[in-house]
Amino acid sequence: MDGKIVILTGAGISAESGLGTFRDEDGLWTKVPIEEVATPEAFARNPAKVHDFYNMRRVRAAEAQPNAAHHALTRLQTERPETVIVTQNVDALHERAGARVIHMHGELCRALCAACDHRWDAPPEMSPGAACPACGAPKARPDIVWFGEMPYHMEEIAGHLRAADLFVAIGTSGAVYPAAGFVEEARMAGAETLELNLNRSDVSAAFDAHALGPASEIVPAWVDEMLAR
């Protein structure tokens, strides 16, 4: 198939690299309540707890390695440069596999100043009251989009969805908006749609086709098929 491919990846693509998913039976949000670590209110109430949570995740993400699914998407993007990868993941596994990605939910390896919006590379460990290197305000926080905040790059992503010939969702739960609505946006623009997932998602019915299984198996197989056409 020729044309523009837009791919959305979620936690399921990194699960086989040792980074847990969020909404499965044993997912992260079953162990740590969202409202305690992943909202602006949680950060205002207990910044130390929030920093500890993201410090732990930052260490684990740095130790993880890209898996076969990440490498397969890099191969697809290399051979089909019009391929756009949008990720809900805050790890850097796509980049470490050599891909170009749009991070809609931010990045664990980056810090953000809540006072002036300056961004910089986060140290391995962040703590309450850390100063912004640009304005000096003690307002450093993880550069992560928390619940209740607007995801990044939405206009750019919307433009890619309108131009897509094929939209593919990989390893997503279909439970978090606006990403869960991307399949409908792509369908309305005339794109074919495909879901690659371990199990059917909350929005599976909106896709034209599905392939179920571990990402490290079904993603390389799909990429092989695409590049053989």
Estimate what percentage of residues fall within beta strands.
15-25%
| Tertiary shape | elongated
How many strand elements?
9
As for the number of domains, it is: 2
The CATH class of the largest domain, by name, is Alpha Beta
Low-confidence stretches: none
The overall pLDDT, averaged over residues, is 93
CATH H level, superfamily name of the largest domain: TPP-binding domain
Question: From the coordinates shown, what is the CATH architecture of the largest domain?
Answer: 3-Layer(aba) Sandwich
Strand order of the largest sheet: 3-2-1-7-8-9
N/C terminus separation:
6 Å
**Could you give a short account of the major beta sheet?**
6 strands, parallel
Count of helical stretches = 8
Structure description:
There is one protein chain. With 229 residues, the chain is an alpha/beta fold. The protein folds into two domains: 1-19 and 65-105 and 151-229, TPP-binding domain (Rossmann fold, 3-Layer(aba) Sandwich), CATH 3.40.50.1220; 24-63 and 110-144, SIR2/SIRT2 'Small Domain' (2-Layer Sandwich), CATH 3.30.1600. Helix content is 32%, strand content 19%. The protein contains eight helices and nine strands. It has helices at residues 34-37, 40-45, 47-63, 68-79, 93-96, 154-163, 182-188, 215-228; strands spanning 5-9, 84-87, 101-103, 106-113, 119-121, 140-144, 166-170, 192-197, 209-212. The strands form two sheets. A six-stranded parallel β-sheet has the order 3-2-1-7-8-9, with helices on both faces. Strands 5-4-6 form a three-stranded antiparallel β-sheet. Helix 4 (68-79) packs parallel to helix 8 and helix 6 (154-163) packs across helix 7 (182-188). It is elongated and about 55 Å long. It starts with a strand and ends with a helix.
